[in-house]
Amino acid sequence: MADGEWYWCLEHHAVEPYEGCKSENRLGPYPTRDAAEGALDKVKARNDQWDREDEDYEGDADSPSPVGG
Predict the structure, then answer these.
(1) Which SS3 state, helix, strand or coil, does residue 17 take?
(2) Buried b (16+ CB within 10 A) or exposed e, 24-60
(3) pLDDT tens digits for the chain (69 residues)?
(4) Nearest to 18, CA basis, from 54, 38, 9, 10
(5) What is the domain partition of the chain in residue ranges?
(6) How far apart are CA 56 and CA 7, in angstroms?
(7) Of 47, 52, 59, 62, which residue is 20 to 30 A from 41 by alpha carbon distance?
(8) Global pTM?
């Protein structure tokens, strides 16, 4: 483990060091504790961006239809 690896635990809703919960229950690693604390904000921002991109793609009449759609 490198010094400064921090994780956001999805089970406990808290920042943990490497020695915390199983990796399947957490996000990371992040380089700092503060970065790990902002993990859910980063996930939300990415999801919002992807949703906007999907809406833009689906609204483009010149775009091919999605596979199976």
Answers:
(1) strand
(2) eebbbbbeeeebbeebeeeeeeeeeeeeeeeeeeeee
(3) 456 899 999 999 999 999 999 989 999 999 999 999 999 999 999 999 999 999 988 886 565 656 665
(4) 9
(5) 6-58
(6) 33
(7) 59
(8) 0.66
